[in-house]
Amino acid sequence: MTKTIHPIDVILHKRDGLALTDEEIRSFIRAIVRRTPARQLVTDAQIAAFLMGVFFQGLNSRELSVLTEAMRFSGEVAYTEILNTFVIDKHSTGGVGDKTSLLIAPIIAAAGVAHPTPEGIPGIVVPMISGRSLGHTGGTLDKLETIPGFDTQLTLARMLDVLKQCGAALIGQTPTIVPADRILYALRDHTGTVESPFLITASIMSKKLAESLNALVLDVKVGCGAFMPSYEKSKFLAELMVQTGEAAGTRTVALLTGMDEPLGRFSGNWIEVWECVDIMRGVRHPMSADLIELSLTLSGWMLHLAGHSPSPQAGIDRADEILRSGDAYNAWLKIIQAQGGDTSVFEDPASHHTPGAKRILKAGETGFLASMDCKQAGWAVQRLGAGRAKPGDPVSANAGIESHVKLGAHIEEGQPLFTLFSDDEALLEEPEQMLRENLRIMEEPPTLPPLIREVIAADSTQPNRGRRGPDA
Ligand code: URA
358-387: string of b/e by CB count within 10 Å (b at 16+)? Predict the structure, then answer.
């Protein structure tokens, strides 16, 4: 006879620092998704207590893998295996102006289309399931939805059709994927448990693994614009995600990359699509150099893991060729058309940017731009109207900022640093002040770290024995 597992026992075991059994974790997650108002198999208070137990006691590698798998299979999964091709995705922990997905999906799609399987399916496919803006960071879905007609709410069956036809699909989270995460995340938000690296890992990896991936490349941000407050904590999170992906049979590599200033030229919604369209059409604005470097590096790793390039560097070179040749742009047009988007807006993207109000922020002194508070820059973009104050708020297609300088640049007093865009003149004041107050201009040029800081692969991680992480 199987022993009944009561939620209270799972909570007590975690509270007291014991390792949970596989069945304890699975039964807790089952209870979360199967409960109904009439049948409270587990109460909100108990889920909150469990989350706090995990926050303080952590999870060992086995517990974390079992929790992630239980969440992954708590709802519908994308059976991309039936395509019989290599399935890969990229995930970023979130940044300001971070639009690499818009370049990576078409680059990899173009690479895959050039090597179709005997059934005519692209040799690599990217089922990119993305999110909306969160806090100070932007969201890929909000950017894509500025393209007239573009449908991000595809069913998983329809996503498979787009993958077969185009090699990539760009869609939003469906209500049926990983329902356990939706319930846990809502309670984490109210109980001060969002920042646990174990809970973040289970949340992100359960959703990515529900795409049935062969490989995953993670872009884990470090620096003042990252969610994690220190380099060590970002690295610990990257290690947990790599170990959890590998334990599920998905080749997983994480790149620790800098988020000390907005990535690329524009930060907002339509203006980020415009920047990527320019790049795919061969226009490389100097302010887009960091965006191009990061997108090519992530694409290079993806091509390498998919077996299409003998090394990450060869993959980067191949990705650059695809981008320069116009193949990525053709793949982009195909994906946008397949999902109902009107591609005529890409002919002259600047003319589709119609902000009602605009202001230029100029340098107050001469010197070198040494640092800025990138998180504040992200909040400034949100306050201009490009992000949300609360879930469900509408976002502006036109709002955002254009960067005219990058860290390390020598600037003259009166030189334009940022242009701010909004639908409403009244929304310009506070963001302008937020940006101005958070810039540091120095006499000496700063020493800046490289954009790509470190690569974390399975063989470079330490075993996780349930410690809470650095400085805990
Ligand atoms: N993004 C997620 O999907 N989950 C988290 O916990 C944090 C960021």
Answer: ebebebeeebbbbbbbbbbbbbbbbbbbbb
